[in-house]
Amino acid sequence: MDKAFQALTAVSPIDGRYRDKVEILSDYFSEYALIRYRVRVEIEYFIALCSIPLPQLKGFPKGKFSSLRKIYNDLTVEQAQKVKDIEKITNHDVKAVEYFIKEEFKRLKIEKYSEFVHFGLTSQDINNTAVPLSLKEGVENVYLPQLLEVKKILEGYAKEWKDVPLLAHTHGQPASPTRLGKEIKVFVERLDKQLKLLKTVPYSSKFGGATGGMNAHKVAYPDIDWNKFATTFQKDAFGLVRSYPTTQIEHYDNLAALFDNLKRINTILIDLCRDVWTYISMEYFKQKIKAGEVGSSAMPHKVNPIDFENAEGNLGVANAVFEHLSAKLPVSRMQRDLTDSTVLRNVGVPLAHTVIALKSLKKGLGKLILNKEKLNADLEDNWAVVAEAMQTILRREGYPHPYETLKELTRVNTKITRESIAEFVNGLKIKESVKKEMLSVTPQNYTGI
What we know:
Elements: H1 3-9, H2 19-22, H3 26-29, H4 31-51, H5 65-73, H6 77-90, H7 93-107, H8 123-160, E1 165-170, E2 173-179, H9 180-200, E3 204-205, H10 215-220, H11 226-238, E4 241-242, H12 253-281, E5 285-287, H13 306-328, H14 339-344, H15 348-366, E6 368-370, H16 372-380, H17 387-396, H18 402-410, H19 418-426, H20 432-439
Parallel strand pairs: 3-4
Antiparallel strand pairs: 1-2, 5-6
């Protein structure tokens, strides 16, 4: 079956319509990737046992370490399929990995050491190392660069538009003017805070044998500090933080914190998408037109904000899955049930939808054209918004009931204009210098800090 046909028949849009946007994630979250990560954990564990060294591994030739690492570094899709073929016999995915590695040991003529592959371990020692490792590397290598590109674009706009006055809207109604650059910077600051939090969430692993107590290790080699070994191994080999004590599986509490953090970032981006979408609908932004593109099958004039709509939709799907992952994974019956196993296979799904959204968001942000004429027209059409400035100055001057005075002026059905504001101010019994100060305030310059 050729690639195009596979894309057309894929059930998930991740592997169909959007395959070209997220194909890189298959290096971290596909079945092939999971097999490669499992092989990597098993190989690195064997090398760590050699480095203790266990008495039976003292004679292992250290020059073979590079050959062992090539097993996972150079693992092909065909070899991964071989593991899947073994699984058809074993009916156990991790045991299939173990048997595959033992066959590789035979090929490398080190078969006599092969019983120390998967020594003392349970499958979750491998899975609960492989999955957080794949997440760590997928987030760092794919997700974060995409997010930081979006943030950089926003930082550029915040700087470029720092002096552009904007009519604010609270409750959908005209409100005290702001600056467009400041409104964009709000999102930059929110993302910065969440990124700082993201850095504090450790990628936790479980490595402790059948029920978490390193029972098999201790009974075989009682004089070795296996807890210290396991903790050091996870940190040095993979940059993971080992959870202890555990049951047969990881707690997933930190994994839940990671998903909740990613969900919060997505929520901020949904907020951004909706704001920009609204600004486009108000004509504060125009969009660059690409030759040949169609905005509507019926209305030729339309240039739809489809990139922001696509981003919002995919961020919503991602958050729904993140929500389930963070709520379900930390809950397991007694020392272990298998519900986490099938759920963990979906950790790449919300990241894929998020990456699709980030790419759409970048595309949409890149199309924006500032419509200063419309921005200024809306400011000029809403002189009522300077009422706050007027009543605040009057408060400072000790004028009686300033709020109520301005309320009588502005909360009527008559349109407030530059002229009516001037007439109002000139009719006040205040110093001329204060009148001049008040009349200098306009919707265009009453934009705060």
